[in-house]
Design brief:
Blueprint lengths: L1 E6 L7 H14 L4 E6 L1 H4 L6 H18 L6 E5 L5 H10 L4 H5 L2 H9 L6 H16 L4 E3 L5 H18 L7 E3 L33 H9 L17 H14 L3 H7 L5 H27 L2 H30 L3
Parallel strand pairs: 1-2, 2-3, 4-5
Helix pairs in contact: 3-12, 4-7, 4-13, 7-8, 9-12, 10-12
The structure holds adenosine monophosphate and tryptophan (TRP).
The site of tryptophan has 14 residues, from strand 1 and helix 7.
Length: 325
């Protein structure tokens, strides 16, 4: 079974990214053939600072290594270093109806958010993503819920290409995390945790113990005192329970029992301790890797080599099928 996923190199990661995506990736490398990609070509479809792109790519690579991606167990590389992604995008463009792209939720949202730069690349973003996935004959694509529609387009394009030119691509399936697909903001538990929206509602993967304590103590809870999961009536405490459960590995039901007759304060103290202990090794390892840039770049280089072999073989077949050789 082959697994592929990608993440855009945009600034620092938070625990929502970790629980919603990285944690799954790390588990998959133990049981499947995994390819993970830092998608820099996707990152440049919205306004960005060219001087910061390389720094962000390196930060992202370090974050993933720190969180447990093992270059011995998976292929880990930067998208723009394998040119086949761009070549396949062009071919898929020729079979992708514009109407499919116009109805994509992310395109509509980003067009509203970045009114000044609604560029063709932003519209074409899902076709590039389909190329990422199809190039590697992917079976499973673990992503957050927001990306489901894009993976469905990849399926549609695979099917269409196969029908037109003969069987060439596998049809990939999307995989959403069972819990943690949406970690909420600590300040507004009805909104997704997001660094850009509200730094106070968001815990970074490399947050200091002091900041963790401050942010959890200030986290919005719900009326009443009972520690009980109920995402509709008690979104605040439910979100904290989810975070606790995902870091401690204890089921939510068990946590409810442990904290029966105890107040929010005691629960928060326990969560603070858990987060500090869980994130401390990440901070240490990040510091170490920041001083080993050559080593990290070498891992990405080796990843490129391996990814390129698979991509080249798919593309040879694709060119033949469409009549270019
Ligand atoms: P982004 O930084 O929005 O491109 O997200 C990177 C990955 O993290 C994607 O797989 C998202 O679905 C996931 N993600 C982002 N924010 C959250 C959140 N608050 N809860 C769970 N997953 C998230
Ligand atoms: N669009 C995805 C996101 O914003 C990132 C991505 C690019 C991706 N190519 C991919 C995810 C291929 C999975 C598979 O999160």
């Amino acid at each position: 079974m082959r697994v592929f996923s990608g993440i855009r190199p945009t600034g620092e990661l938070h625990i929502g990214n970790y629980l919603g995506s990285i944690k799954q990736w790390v588990e998959f490398q133990e049981k499947a053939e995994c390819i993970f990609c830092i998608v820099d070509l996707h990152a440049i479809t919205t306004p960005y600072n060219p001087r910061e792109l390389q720094k962000n790519i390196l930060e992202m690579a370090i974050a993933y290594l720190v969180a447990g991606l093992d270059p011995e167990k998976c292929i880990f590389f930067v998208q723009s270093t394998v040119k086949e992604h761009l070549e396949l995008t062009w071919f898929l463009n020729t079979i992708c109806p514009i109407s499919e792209l116009n109805r994509m939720t992310q395109f509509k949202e980003k067009s509203k958010q970045f009114k000044e730069s609604i560029n063709a690349g932003l519209l074409d973003y899902p076709v590039l993503m389909a190329s990422d996935i199809l190039l590697y004959q992917t079976d499973l694509v673990p992503v957050g819920k927001d990306q489901k529609q894009h993976v469905e387009l990849a399926r549609t394009l695979a099917r269409k290409f196969n029908r037109k030119f003969g069987k060439t691509f596998k049809e990939p399936q999307v995989l959403l995390p069972k819990i943690g697909e949406k970690i909420m903001s600590l300040q507004n538990p009805r909104k997704k945790m997001s660094k850009t929206d509200d730094p106070k509602g968001c815990i970074g993967l490399f947050e200091t113990p002091e900041a963790i304590e401050e942010k959890i103590m200030a986290a919005v809870t719900d009326p009443g005192k009972i520690i009980k999961y109920d995402s509709m009536k008690k979104p605040g405490i439910s979100n904290l329970l989810t975070i606790h459960s995902l870091f401690s590995g204890k089921p939510i039901k068990g946590l409810e029992k442990n904290f029966r007759n105890k107040g929010y304060k005691e629960f928060k103290k326990s969560l603070i301790k858990l987060l500090i202990n869980s994130l401390e090794p990440f901070r240490k390892k990040r510091k170490e890797l920041l001083s080993r840039e050559v080593y990290v770049r070498e891992i990405l280089k080796q990843g490129t080599k391996k990814a390129q072999m698979v991509a080249a073989s798919t593309m040879e077949n694709v060119r033949k099928k469409i009549g270019l050789v």
